[in-house]
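Task: sequence design from structure.
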């Protein structure tokens, strides 16, 4: 006789949630361990004296990193959102759209050093911008653009189609519907993707190494888009490879500040998304 015993849906759900929690712990524990290890190794050097204008001070690097990620967001956000709107709202499924999506997926997996070499060839040499803030921001914008497009398109997909139909039924055009209905409701997901992209850009070293970074005290802060800048990843690279007088504690403390900045941006993305979702409940 066949057994009539079957696994209940609740049991399947509990097993699935247990597996998800185990996977989350496997991912989170190493990250927390790395952060704590850096904190312990660099705790002795963590002080306000680190944030000064000197050969090993972090203030110029923090200012440069902030300027870089802000300009990167200003360049990447409109391009990425516009591309996502086209793909999700205007483009008809076909060979061209499939090729565009395939290109976006492939570009997301290209190593950052390749983007750095491309930025060096295009922005620094061909367009003759030189090694500057603008060249670095354009290079990082290309780096994070696939992520911005993917997250923005997914956010647009999450807006119920009935919202569009209701707007069209009231006589609104397609663009009016996108601008007044779709984009406001997709805003939480778009902002989350943008902040995550900025977090990735803030931790990249190779693209900046080729296009914008410098290590000099004569001009510690950028005064225009065409000035070279000092950023935290590059300063950490210099401290670890070209500054033998810097102690190991200072190196670990700088690494901790950089990781804390990236983690802080990711936490900010989670908090902002949660608040915006509560404000745009459907």
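Answer:
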């Amino acid at each position: 006789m066949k057994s009539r015993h079957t696994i209940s849906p609740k049991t399947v759900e509990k097993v699935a949630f247990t597996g998800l929690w185990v996977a989350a712990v496997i991912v989170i524990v190493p990250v927390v361990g790395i952060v704590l290890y850096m904190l312990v190794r660099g705790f002795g050097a963590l002080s306000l004296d680190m944030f000064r204008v000197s050969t090993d001070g972090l203030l110029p690097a923090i200012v440069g990193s902030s300027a870089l990620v802000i300009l990167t967001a200003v360049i990447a956000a409109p391009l990425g959102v516009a591309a996502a709107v086209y793909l999700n709202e205007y483009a008809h499924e076909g060979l061209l759209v499939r090729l565009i999506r395939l290109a976006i997926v492939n570009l997301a997996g290209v190593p950052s050093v390749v983007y750095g070499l491309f930025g060096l060839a295009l922005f620094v040499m061909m367009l003759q911008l030189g090694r500057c803030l603008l060249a670095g921001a354009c290079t990082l914008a290309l780096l994070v653009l696939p992520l911005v497009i993917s997250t923005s398109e997914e956010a647009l997909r999450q807006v119920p189609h009935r919202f569009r139909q209701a707007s069209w039924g009231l006589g609104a055009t397609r663009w009016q519907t996108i601008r007044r209905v779709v984009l406001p409701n997709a805003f939480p997901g778009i902002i989350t993707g943008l902040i995550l992209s900025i977090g990735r850009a803030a931790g990249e070293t190779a693209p900046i190494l080729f296009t914008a970074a410098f290590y000099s005290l004569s001009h510690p802060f950028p005064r225009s888009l065409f000035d070279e800048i000092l950023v935290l990843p590059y300063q950490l690279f210099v401290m670890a490879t070209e500054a033998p007088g810097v102690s190991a504690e200072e190196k670990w403390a700088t690494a901790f500040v950089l990781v804390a900045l990236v983690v802080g941006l990711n936490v900010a993305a989670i908090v902002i998304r949660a608040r915006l979702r509560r404000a745009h409940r459907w």
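The mean pLDDT is 84.
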